[in-house]
Specification:
The chain is 37% helix and 23% strand. It is built from 16 helices and 15 strands. The strands form 2 sheets. A 10-stranded mixed sheet has the order 3-2-1-4-5-10-9-6-7-8, sandwiched between helices. β1, α1 and β2 form a beta-alpha-beta unit.
Length: 426
């Protein structure tokens, strides 16, 4: 694969050239493609192309005294964004490097700029360089690279995590995992009450850290990993910039959904590309055709109403965790039982544990709630469940429409995988 670097021949564009050479050398690439787009209204490009080629040759000589990797100059004519994207695709590039001073003094309403344009026009990762020095020093082995990843549970975060793995494989990277949460929404997810809408909530952040550590996974290579949170009041992108500035990071890695038109105004990546002081590495979802890792479930929540059929789900919870880990037995009782000792129900739950489960930690939870599906889902979030196991009687027709189904509601309300056991057919 090849790095393609786009330059407009400005002094600022030399930052992109220097960063591209450093990364290509670190990756042991044989070749680097340096691209300049000639203006479409310049008529005969012969004289302009010759001057541009001479200029680029001087930049290449300054950036690569040992001529490793080899650099090839490509001159193209056409609209800047479309030409850069087309050249990168034609060259089989896996990274497009461009420079940008940032647009903090211009409204995001403009949605303009070459750097923002290529981010939203290509399925190839784009590195927008503000300052090449941190990247060149890291590539030379002089210091770790300090990288912030905007981390959440969305699918667009997967390619950013994959990119972070690749960077850590190249050299030492200190990681700052930044996450913005909205207290009321997050508290509802865990079945808690928000303590404040503006101040940090240690209880919520403890749950978030546990879940985001699992989301990030085990990173290769060396470097420190820290988590930083912000209670959100405005745009997520603005809060991520606050985290990045406070943490003193060199580079921000973010996944992008490539929203178009007015949708860019709410796009986290658009805010970062537009306003970040640091370099930004944007990774579109299509850039990584990652092979899904085999999940290893360690914590299961199994819910039962203590009926014979509901109890049928309990052994399956031990099956899915493979004999090691935690199983949480959950029974939801209605508001009429609030204040009554749950000891009898807890004893009934523990009596359901299959024999011989010596490697499994088992806990019983008797919880009061008027909506069983919501209560089970909230408990699963607080307990950090990898999977929820529940039996469903599979009601159909008018009965299902009138009464609903705890399993159906749970599927709609919960983010966790749910294993639903159906009754045997007669």
């Amino acid at each position: 694969m090849t790095i393609v670097c786009g330059t407009d021949l400005s002094d600022n564009a030399n930052q992109a050239v220097n960063a591209a050479f450093a990364l290509a050398r670190l990756r042991h690439d044989r070749e680097l493609v340096i691209t300049h787009v000639l203006a479409t209204d310049a008529g005969d490009h012969g004289e302009d192309a010759a001057a541009a080629r001479d200029h680029l040759a001087g930049c290449i000589a300054a950036a690569s005294t040992d001529r490793v990797p080899a650099a090839r100059i490509e001159m193209v004519a056409g609209p800047a964004v479309e030409s850069l994207v087309a050249t990168t695709e034609t060259e089989g590039g896996d990274l497009l490097v461009v420079s940008s001073r940032g647009h903090g003094d211009r409204s995001l309403m403009s949605l303009g700029g070459i750097s923002g344009g290529v981010v939203h026009s290509t399925t190839i990762p784009v590195l927008i360089v503000r300052d090449a020095r941190p990247l060149t020093e890291w590539a030379a082995g002089q210091r770790p690279l300090r990288v912030m990843i905007g981390l959440d549970e969305s699918a667009s975060c997967d390619p950013a995590i994959a990119q972070l793995h690749q960077l850590r494989a190249l050299g030492p990277v200190d990681v700052v995992a930044g996450h913005v949460y909205y207290a009321d929404e997050t508290a509802r997810r865990y079945g808690l009450r928000a303590q404040s809408m503006v101040d940090a909530d240690p209880t919520l952040e403890r749950f978030l850290r546990r879940d985001l550590e699992r989301r990030l996974g085990e990173l290769p290579g060396t470097g420190q990993v820290e988590f930083r949170f912000r209670a959100g009041l405005g745009r997520i992108g603005d809060h991520l910039l606050e985290i990045a500035d406070a943490a003193g990071v060199d580079l921000i890695v973010v996944g992008t959904k490539q929203k178009g038109g007015i949708g860019r105004l709410s796009s986290v990546s658009s805010v970062l590309v537009h306003d970040a002081k640091q370099s930004v590495w944007c990774v579109p979802a299509a850039a990584h055709a990652s092979v899904a890792a085999i999940p290893r479930w360690k914590t299961a929540v199994v819910a039962t109403d203590l009926s014979e059929f509901g109890n049928h789900a309990v052994p399956y919870a031990f099956t899915v965790i493979g004999g090691k880990g935690e199983v949480h037995l959950v029974h939801v009782r209605d508001e009429d039982h609030e204040g009554k000792a749950p000891a009898d129900a807890e004893a009934k739950l523990l009596a359901l544990v299959p024999p011989g489960q010596t490697g499994v930690t088992v806990r019983a939870h008797v919880i009061t709630g008027d909506d069983p599906a919501q209560t089970i889902g909230e408990a699963a979030e607080r307990l950090g469940a990898d999977v929820i196991v529940i039996a469903s009687r599979a009601r159909g027709g008018i009965t299902r429409a009138l009464l609903g189904s705890v399993a159906d509601k749970l599927l709609r309300a919960c983010r966790r995988p749910v294993l639903i056991l159906r009754p045997p057919t007669e």
